[in-house]
Amino acid sequence: MASDFALSAPLADLPNEAIVAPGESWESVGREVTGLAIDHRIGARWWIAFAGALALVGLMAATTAWLLIQGVGIWGNNTPVVWALDIASYDWWIGIASGGLVVSALLLLVSAEWRGALNRITETMAVVAAAAAGLYPILHLGRPWFFFWNLPYPNTFLLWPQVRSPLFWDAVDIVSFLGIGLSFWYVGMLPDLAAMRDRAVERLGDNGLAGVPSGGLRVLRAQIYGIAALGWRGSALHWQRWSQAYRVIALFCVLLVVSLQTGAAVMFAGTVEPGWHDTLLPVSYLFGAIFSGVAMVAVLAVVLRHVFRLAPLVTPRHFDLLAMLLLGLGLINLYCYAAEFGTIWLTGSGFDKATLGRRFIGPHAWSSWAVIACALVPVHLFWVPALRRSALALLVVGLLVSAGMYADHFMVIVVTLQHDFLPSADQAYSVNLWEVATFAGTIGLFLALLLLFLRYLPAVSIVGLRQSIPPGTPRKAGSGVRG
Amino acid sequence: MTELRKTPAQWRSLDALADTPEFRTFLEREFPAVTDLSVGPERRNFLKLMAASFALAGLSGCDDPPDGRDQEVPYVRAPERMEPGTWLQYASVALLDGFANGILVSTRNGRPLKIEGNPEHPWSRGGTDVQGQASVLGLYDPNRSQTVRRLGRASSWAAFRSETGARFATLRGTRGEDFRLLTGPVTSPLVLAQIEAIREAYPAMRWHSHAAVDRAPMYEATRRAFGRSLETRWRFDRARVIVALDGDFLDAGVQQVGAARDWVAARRASIAAGGLLAMHAAGPIPNLTLAKADFPVAASSAEIATLARRLLADLAGPGAPPPATADAPALDRWRARAAAALHAARGSSLVVAGSTQPAEVQEAVHRLNFLLGNQDHTVFHTAPVVAEADNLADLVAAMRSGTVRTLVMLETNPAYDAPGDLGFAAALDRVELKIHAGMHMDETGLRADWHLPLSHPLESWGDALSLDGTVGLLQPTISPLYDSRSAAEILAWLATAEEHAGRDLLRNRWQGDETDDAFAPHFEAMLGAGFISGSAFPPERVRPTPAGPPAVAGSSGIEVLFRPDPSVWDGSLADNPWLQELPNPLTKLVWENAITVGPAFATREHLVQGDMVVLEADGRRIEGPVWILPGQADATIGVTLGYGRSVPDRIAYGLGYNAFSLRQAKDPWRLAGVSLRKTGRTQRLATTQDHSTMEGHDFVRVQPAGAAPVGDDLAYTQPTMFPPGQVDGHQDDRKDGRGDNRAWGMVIDLDSCIGCNACVTACQSENNIAVVGREQIELGRGMHWLRIDRYYEGPAEAPKTHFQPVPCMHCENAPCEVGCPVEATLHDHEGLNLMVYNRCVGTRACSGYCPYKVRHFNYLDYSAGAKPSAALQRNPQVTVRARGVMEKCTYCVQRIAGARIEADKANQPIRDGRVQTACQGACPTQAITFGDLSDNTSAVAAARKDPRNYALLGELNVRPRTTYLAEMAPAGAKTEG
Predict the structure, then answer these.
(1) Which of A306, A451, B218, B903 is 20 to 30 A from B727 in CA distance terms?
(2) Shortest CB distance from A142 goes to which of B781, B791, B841?
(3) Do B376 and B393 reside in the same domain of the chain?
(4) Average pLDDT, chain A
(5) Which alpha helices (DSSP H) does A203-315 contain, by range?
(6) How far, in Å, CA of A80 to CA of B772, rounded?
(7) B219 in a domain, yes or no?
(8) What ipTM does the predicted assembly reach?
(9) Structural domain for B117, as ranges
């Protein structure tokens, strides 16, 4: 079976080192992962994190209610700066979602076996980030209750969305993302759900143990996992179809992400506005998204490893690989910025040059400098091998890159809008608390969903991990997945 | 219920017969009110209830409800000419300081909704000003005084008459000793006739008149120069050069509409003849006149006085005036250039002085015109328009001495706008009976024993003179909203102790010797026209008096100069939210006034924008924020009137500072010996335009006379992959001028635009544009569909100022339309870029995509904030936009649609000029041309062919339908920008 999944392993040429901690076996990883979701031994740390996330969700509920009552005027947006934190946040979240999804899908397609420890976190992050992102296109509307006018549905007006608008295709992309992203996440999880089911069935007879739910709930739990596992029995045919489906969906994921990110970029590139009207923008957006997605995976890997006590499964070897990926993406992004600046410098109109200048010395210059200081520079720490293996370094750099990419979206949107062609139309914009609260609320939503999913679902891909167990590790029967 | 249910004898449907649960649900949904009946004891009870209802309904008809509904009479015979849902226009006049501008009041269903210029009126000729445009909102002002008040408490006219009747009877007995009448400036022959009648009844009564913006210095100057009070009028069309010493003929004021029109007509004629009627202007505080000057220079008040004397000396002899050396100060070079130009055009030059200049300067200017041979050619004089009365200072002195026991104050608010050194409010306390009549319960009304509500000009009969003496007639376009009286009606009661109807008074005033029957048709015709034709004052022959000794030079220290606010004027219009939110033409400030200083002065005193400073003189002080105004003279501090109101619960309450408190009765427009002190605090100023340079672009193009054209058609000749002539193609398949092949377009002549804002207010009035308030403006969310961009060019000490009105460009390749995902903004077949408000979901993409940023978004429910009475002003043809919806200039699509319907009915093409946009109609200088571009004979097509025509941001290939004609500059001026 293992050979099925080791078709090619480009990263296997890297220094010969175990990807999971030494001593882990097929059985032990199964026990550990399913145990997390069945026994909830993580306790206080999880609850603290979840309480914090819930508080932020409460904040979002309050701000959203006020937003719906009063209108988007509670934010600081104004007439030139019609989009600010709303669309910046949307772009950032959807960038993270896209980045996570495409990295997971690509690594699957190239059969990078080390993805096993991280793909569940990555995909869950992508799905949940897309949910956070998906709120904005609705909430930022002047009349959010008519958001569905943006979608093609049969109606008595005989009116359809305006197909030239990048915003319509963005709506299509988001809906597609939720469909394809969820499928990828769920299909990839099927064998693990079967393992959960098996473990839950095993536990049906445990009585009197602390922390074990009462009998009826245990049955319910086993039934839910059983239904979710769609009757997976681990037959060879199942494995074959699963493998095909998973890879086909992965291919769709890659296509979708390219479409979504270039589409999000065309929302800007398709205009005549200086700083937006740029054919390179879709490429920048795509790589920016992957960059921010990987950075967020790095952050979550470090944090969740701590919260869920995954140290044996997520190892410094994973950190090393993530850090190298970040470094590479950082270089690609640096190239994109350099190319944009160079193009404008050499060929741009006066308006483009002026916009470029305002990015660095205008009222929102902090955003450009934040991109450089947070996104482009810190990844170069990872030229040092020791730092690549440091959880702390990865956490800090991952957070910085995420913040830097947020600043990038802010810069692209706000600097151009505030002052495009006519200086007379310039109106000062400043971020206000309601916008920050809305954004904080989406972070809360993201974290709460993430924590919930990882509490009740296998936080690490059991199948994936088993692919990373070096050959020769004894395989024991009855370790969850029957094969 | 089950036992009560019976099978009905008659049934309407099988479901009803079966009385199924589905039927009950249906019934409940469709007729919630009868559900109870249907489950009850059925038909009998239902009929009982119905019978009772009918009976009671009949009874309720016998009531006498307190709301006066029983007085309502339906149109048994509809009023003549009144067609519900159609526009009906009445000719009338709009008043500013008692002066008239001819207007047409557009009413609909009996409500006046919009002010248009009256093209027939000999003075205003179709133009309007912001105050006239905004006056319609003043009618519906919820803060208007609505009832008679006795010591602030609601009372009635009957109470007023009975309680004060005896006193006036006594006064008649004493011939009106210690009775004084105080009014605003009076031009109205009707009011004058009433005052005459009062004088007959009370021969010893004295009449005083007070205006915050006074014409006294102008009359004083003509008294010095010609021996009597006279109006000064200009014939720009005969002039070859204009020199303005702190000129303000283009600025807000009673002369603006007529003088700006004369000026622009003369300037256009000079351009057509291949030259340019250039204007040399020197002024201490930049204003519209200085901004439109071809040779502007900053000169302090003292320097202006010197300039006037030096020009007199330079031009005294027949020889050419001495030239200035190249390194002479800017002011000397300016004077030498102006003197040379005046000399070259002797006899057809024109020197004008500002109305706020002291009498000595104005006198010098009169003598200069005489010296140059301009008198009775480019400048002439007529009888004064404002009736002469005693001044306010005399009244205050009398009040203080206790010799005034009865004071009637009519249409004036001296407790607020009297010069601070008079101490009017304190003196008022010594008057026994104080009667105030005004449209607002203002500072004076609050101190009066009796306050009487005055009618708005749109609801009263009356008359008033324009600056040229033309008699304009006011007729009510709506019956008074409240129990108010016009000034003439109140005066007539004072004179005769009887109530007189305003219409009778007006009729009697103008009837003369004619019989009633003979006069009736004349009166009808006069009212229909809105003015009496041929009533303008004839020019007066004048002879200069011998020049007196030269005036002593003014002080050279820091001077505070007072100016009326270009929007709220002297404060009498401060409760009008349109005027409050109207950006000042130069500072672009809204909702407040600032203390303006010049850039050099600011540097020297370490002042920055928004610094709060205290100005103090003689123990009187004001505190306000600093605004650094490019082009303001050094050692000059500018303050504007009209703010710092102290009546609570008004929109003007607490806005800005009250400059009147610093003012003095003598020499009211300037004040020397003022100390300026920084408080250390700063204030954020609400301005609609932060950036004033064109950043090296040519948004406003300048065409030097005689130079190669600066206009181009680049906007329409960009490389394209589409076959050419898609829009111009309209012309090819144009057959008879009818049908769907129109192409609406607009051309704005930047040379004619004086930046006066009349178009902005007209647009707001026509299109129900919400007022958002100061906080929202500070956030950058103003809603004006039409904004006037103001750019400076050159050094901050002496910049050239440009104005550029920016409405929606109605781009043929509109970028906004690409952005909208729901097709809420799209093109129609006549090239209009439309907004479908009820389809808009508010993504705001269109605004982000718009290169001109002319779209405005309802971030909050701005329109819902209007008071119910103010909402009455709204144009029913224009949707009131809800929150979350984008809006923008529509080229007044409702007017186009109206014309299209008319044309379709008549099966005729829309005549060129039939559709006038609101901005176009309001413009006093006719800077805006609008029409069908596909009609080769249209005015707008002709304007597009002007070599000065160019498109703003034409290089973007959005193909804007709105284009501009470049501003003109004298030959040889370098093209900048």
Answers:
(1) B903
(2) B841
(3) no
(4) 86
(5) 215-228, 236-269, 281-307
(6) 16
(7) no
(8) 0.89
(9) 87-139
